[in-house]
Amino acid sequence: MTFRYSLQTNNGLARLGSFSTPHGSIKLPGFAPVGTQATVKTLTPEEVRNLGADLILANTYHLYLRPGSERIARLGGLHEFMGWDGPILTDSGGFQVFSLNDLREIDDDGVTFRSHLDGSKHKFTPEKVMEIQAQLGADIIMAFDECPPPLDRAYNEQALARTHAWAVRCAKHQQRRDQALFGIVQGGIFTDLRQHSARFLSDLDLPGYAIGGLAVGETKSQMYATLDDVMPHLPSDRPRYLMGVGAPDDIVESVARGVDLFDCVLPTRIARNGAIFTKQGRLNLRNARFADEPGPLEQGCDCYTCQRFSRAYIHHLIRAKEMLGFRLTTLHNLRFLEQLMDSIRTHIAAASYMEFRSDFLRTYLGTEPHSLEPSRPVDR
Amino acid sequence: MTFRYSLQTNNGLARLGSFSTPHGSIKLPGFAPVGTQATVKTLTPEEVRNLGADLILANTYHLYLRPGSERIARLGGLHEFMGWDGPILTDSGGFQVFSLNDLREIDDDGVTFRSHLDGSKHKFTPEKVMEIQAQLGADIIMAFDECPPPLDRAYNEQALARTHAWAVRCAKHQQRRDQALFGIVQGGIFTDLRQHSARFLSDLDLPGYAIGGLAVGETKSQMYATLDDVMPHLPSDRPRYLMGVGAPDDIVESVARGVDLFDCVLPTRIARNGAIFTKQGRLNLRNARFADEPGPLEQGCDCYTCQRFSRAYIHHLIRAKEMLGFRLTTLHNLRFLEQLMDSIRTHIAAASYMEFRSDFLRTYLGTEPHSLEPSRPVDR
């Protein structure tokens, strides 16, 4: 079987494992840098690989509009097009088209929307999204789903029925056997909806499952409680992917609840604002106090940036809006997360993950971890 | 002697040689990429080195204002600050402050100007500029000069007296023996002024000479004729640097007239507009015809970009305003020029430079070379 989740060991609910794909194996827990427009912003594929990343994410909505998924197919597919020979995951475009607000209309068939680039009209249906993702050719593709605000009960109930119907249509219309289709569990912060969604999608026997619709408005406590509730209802022999989450504390808390895979624009986006991750929390290098600091961004960091350049120099580059500054902070932030994933995997293997989690959160946030709650099963 | 020009061989007026500095030797003829704000835009120092560049240029005016030359001195100097351990050349700031137009006033003492960043008032004098360049710590520093429009005879006469007086003051106030002070020959397109300037500055016995004030308004014929006239009046045992010139045809024509060194923002600036050099001339990758081209930017180019990416992908990145696109075109354009300098040196060594020049210009411009004219000496 091309796509296989291998569990190496558990530590509490945290899982050490891997997921095999046609373009290589993904170490889990793992973090996928985001390459929205077929490039992890500012970096070459070699640089992304050297950071330790196994998997990258690209966005179906953006690539469908520009340069066009048919064009990418003609040019040999996304791996060839962008020069990345490792695993790629494409999202379904759902999150992006729902974010267009006034530019889109939803019905049971799909979503009609206007391009943010030129106003042209398009329609995404589950079938269309499967066709586009087949053209792009990623290793992991996502079912088309509807992403309501996580606190709106009525909307989540209505949307969930659609998301499930669409997942069935996606599974039915999958075009390529060398792509793994992941289902997306929705249901906002509502335990019963989430558990229903997890069970419904589990019955489809897909090679992996994502948790969508979190980290978009609810509190961190609500997010962690939702994970507490839903994770035990997902099959233990499939990878679990928490979409759009990349804050270091969220990653550490989510791994403790059994999440295997993350992606997020956070490390690359804040880098372009001059902000960096450190073990002591986030810093903004635009701050004048860094102008004369000869030391690295973070003592002990093994990233390219920290090996070669001072805070003073990077402060200067960021202030002067020099692209090299954004490259160097991007490299640091992504390497910070890959180092974090390394540590997470090491501590799960050593059965010391819970201590690691406490130590990390105390240093990073100055707080204790959120308590892990047993799942509250709800019958429907 | 730390700074020494070594002539290896001549081919006509073209010279193959090298110039030694405390941070290494510079192969001549050579091209220096420009790192205005202590970074060659988009690139790391390793990347610049791997392109084959020996020398980079940084701008005194920009670095004096931000992050400040005193700060750079405190942080260990420009080499340490930006992580470049090869030779550096800083300009005098003259060209930049004269370009400020309404923001500056010139008198015999120097130039009073307002910062383009915050409007703050500053004054550059020859002494001040020597102090700033000592703080920056480049290997090659430039005398403070006045840069009039090349076709304005009256202004050039008046400015030349000032440029010469300032060169004397710079030589007198040079602070560090580990820096080579180059004089700048001015005089617009006027043979008598240029020859007078060359002789005046030669008498100062400086370790190198620049030709300033060209490629800023005159025709190419006028520029080449000016070089024909002035070059024989510069000492043959010192390097000759044509400031601000970097168009491939200009480099090839100028080497034929005895120029050793060039710098220019052209390759990096046009790269950020999506334009690239090829042996067949310039191309703009924004053009829709590149959207489906699977081949490299230029067949046979050995640059990183051409080894790995298609025209279609780079077209996409440029259209999507992705920083990686600007990195990749910058790498190509700078490597194009370094490959050109390699070819130039090879052909001078093989005594085939004149044939190379004709072949190159026919392919690049579709025209024949400009004829080389004997210098027209003028007595004053």
Descriptive account of the structure:
The structure is a homodimer of 380-residue chains. Chain A folds into 2 domains: 4-264, Alpha-Beta Barrel (TIM Barrel); 271-349, no CATH class. Helix content of chain A is 39%, strand content 18%. Chain A has 15 helices and 16 strands. In chain A, the strands form 4 sheets. Chain A has an 8-stranded parallel sheet with strand order 4-14-13-12-11-10-6-5. A 3-stranded antiparallel sheet of chain A has the order 1-2-3. In chain A, a hairpin with a 2-residue loop joins strand 15 and strand 16. At the A-B interface, helix 13 and helix 14 of A face helix 13 and helix 14 of B.
Largest sheet, spatial ordering of strands of chain A: 4-14-13-12-11-10-6-5
Identify the CATH class of the largest domain in chain A.
Alpha Beta
- For the CA atoms, what is the radius of gyration of chain A? 20 Å
Which shape of chain A, going by the Cα principal axes?
A: globular
Low-confidence stretches of chain A: none
The chain-level mean pLDDT of chain A equals 97
Which homologous superfamily in CATH is the superfamily of the largest domain in chain A?
Queuine tRNA-ribosyltransferase-like
Based on the structure given, which CATH architecture of the largest domain in chain A is correct? Alpha-Beta Barrel
Largest sheet properties of chain A: 8 strands, parallel
User: How many angstroms does the end-to-end distance of chain A come to?
Assistant: 35 Å
| Overall domain count of chain A | 2
SS class of chain A: alpha/beta
Oligomerization: homodimer
